[in-house]
Amino acid sequence: MSHRTPAGQFLDAAIGLLRRLRDEEAGPMAAAGTMIADTVADGGRLFAFGAGHSSLAAQDLVYRAGGLALMNLLTVPGVVGVDVRPATLGSALERVEGLAGTVLDSSPLREGDLLVIISLSGRNVMPVEMATRARAKGVKVIGVTSVGYAAETSPRNPSGTFLKDHCDVVLDSGIAVGDAELTWEGVSAPFAPASTVVTSALLQAVMATAAATLADRGVEPPLLRSGNVDGGHAWNTRVMTEYGDRIFYQH
Predict the structure, then answer these.
(1) Is the CB of residue 101 less than 8 Å from the CB of residue 131?
(2) How buried is 168 (Cβ within 10 angstroms: 0-12 exposed, 13-18 middle, 19+ buried)?
(3) Which of 26, 69, 110, 196 is the most buried (most CB within 10 A)?
(4) Which residues contact 245 (CB under 8 A, 6 or more apart)?
(5) E strand segments, the chain
(6) Is the separation of the CB atoms in 55 and 81 below 8 Å?
(7) What single string gives the DSSP state of each residue in 72-112?
(8) Is residue 203 a contact partner of residue 57, using CB atoms and an 8 Å limit?
């Protein structure tokens, strides 16, 4: 494929972003993976949240072949995904004060658990309120965001802060403000977002670190297998039964 094509240029941009993660985010990725391993070993539960398209990376961690069985999706009605009608309502709900706190108060989250919060801009009420309220409950927070937004945009929440300001570990996706990698003659708006592929890769790298860290400590990581391989269903049934009190998506 020619690198002059739009497809080639986009893939080059994505590869460059992934290389940056490998070279510049190794420390935070190791810290996040270790924190997840610590939580699993200490009996805590794991949750992930993202609003809108950020929810795609959160969902990629839950009930996932090759992933940790203990990762649960924290859902906010109308915010996780773009299935709400109209789709613009989801964006509006991210700016509603009190909604994140209400969801947390109704969720299973408790002291000793860990919450991954994914928000590309990190500027809206939802991720900031969720992070602050979760930490007040004694929950560890890993924030996945583009730190560059803090330099180029203004906060859109009463605290005047960003998600990155309220996390135990911050993972910087390095996505440029606007999340569009390409420009093209005759196309008036930038296009080709890379945040989903980069954020998902970043989090899978963290989960790989967590699994290997547990194994290095002599603890078998509670991983799921594909249901499309022989023995996969039996394996998953055993894991989900053993850790049933820490898995909420099967109830």
Answers:
(1) no
(2) middle
(3) 69
(4) none
(5) 46-50, 71-73, 114-118, 140-145, 169-172, 182-184, 187-191
(6) yes
(7) EE---TTTBSS-SSSTHHHHHHTT-TTHHHHHHHHSS--TT
(8) yes
- CA 22/CA 239 separation, integer angstroms: 31
Give Dmax (Cα) for the chain.
Answer: 58
Gap between the Cα atoms of 6 and 23, Å rounded: 26
The burial class, CB within 10 Å (0-12 / 13-18 / 19+), for 210 is buried
From first to last of the 251 residues of the chain, give the pLDDT tens digit.
556 899 999 999 999 999 999 999 999 999 999 999 999 999 999 999 999 899 999 999 999 999 999 999 999 888 887 788 898 888 888 888 889 999 999 999 999 999 999 999 999 999 999 999 999 999 999 999 999 999 999 888 888 899 999 999 999 999 999 999 999 999 999 999 999 999 999 999 999 999 999 999 999 999 999 999 999 999 999 999 999 999 999 86
Pairwise CA distance, residues 64 & 226, whole Å: 8
d(CA 121, CA 153): 9
CA distance 166 to 143: 8
What are 165's two structure tokens?
Answer: 């300001």
C-beta of residue 91 within 8 angstroms of C-beta of residue 117: no
State pTM to two decimals: 0.95
Alpha-carbon distances, residue 99 vs 106, 163, 185, 249 (angstroms)? 11, 16, 43, 22
